[in-house]
Amino acid sequence: DVKVTQSSRYLVKRTGEKVFLECVQDMDHENMFWYRQDPGLGLRLIYFSYDVKMKEKGDIPEGYSVSREKKERFSLILESASTNQTSMYLCASSKTWGANIQYFGAGTRLSVL
Amino acid sequence: AQSVAQPEDQVNVAEGNPLTVKCTYSVSGNPYLFWYVQYPNRGLQFLLKYITGDNLVKGSYGFEAEFNKSQTSFHLKKPSALVSDSALYFCAVRDSGAGSYQLTFGKGTKLSVIP
């Protein structure tokens, strides 16, 4: 089975801190994604990557950056956390494009105080 | 641009009754359509997908979905609901055209199955 692992289930950070969210997949998938999930808004794509060192902005990239140095690992970075970044963050991976399924991690619930 | 609408924030159904969770979509080309389920404090799990062919798609846990091109709908159904089906359900769409990469999700429908 595909496994997508997010390093933390819960995080509490202070405003202005630099925050790293880590995601690792074990199925040699080319594509990896970061979403945030907020009540009433569904899932919104922050960034995605289709290859090592390659990244593309999603719908809401402001205030975030990403890093993909190895195929299996995709990191989301909040350069200076703000309270409006309090959310559930979901990582996903998939094989190449087309109708391939995205597999999700369990999520990281981030609270910025 | 592609979009998905889930018109109901919440659906309540009695255990043993049939259930339907509605989804409509908009794409410029042909759609790839997906349903995912999310249990509390968990990530999303894939249920089923439509690519092409038979309009009735069968998936995990007894769920199925019917693709209707004329109504641009992809409603999720199950003949007999279980309490364990209570969860948040997301519909998603992607344009099958070349160069399209982004999966667009609906806002989710909370399904509550009442014992």
Describe the protein's architecture and organization:
The complex is a heterodimer of chains A (113) and B (115). Chain A is mostly beta strands and 113 residues long. In chain A, 0% of the residues lie in helices and 57% in strands. Chain B has no helices and twelve strands. Chain B has strands spanning 3-5, 10-14, 19-21, 24-26, 31-38, 44-50, 56-58, 64-68, 73-78, 87-95, 104-105, 109-114. Chain B starts with a strand and ends with a strand. The model of chain B has no long low-confidence stretch (mean pLDDT 93). The A-B interface holds A 4, 9, 35, 40-43, 45, 48, 50, 56, 58-59, 90, 92, 97-99, 101-107, 109 and B 9, 32, 34, 36, 41-46, 49, 51, 90, 94, 96, 100-103, 105-108.
Fold blueprint:
The complex is a heterodimer of chains A (113) and B (115).
Chain A: E1 4-6, E2 10-13, E3 19-25, E4 31-38, E5 42-51, E6 54-57, E7 64-70, E8 73-78, E9 87-94, E10 103-104, E11 108-112
Parallel strand pairs in A: 2-11
Antiparallel strand pairs in A: 1-3, 3-8, 4-5, 4-9, 5-6, 7-8, 9-10, 9-11
Chain B: E1 3-5, E2 10-14, E3 19-21, E4 24-26, E5 31-38, E6 44-50, E7 56-58, E8 64-68, E9 73-78, E10 87-95, E11 104-105, E12 109-114
Parallel strand pairs in B: 2-12
Antiparallel strand pairs in B: 1-4, 3-9, 5-6, 5-10, 7-8, 8-9, 10-11, 10-12
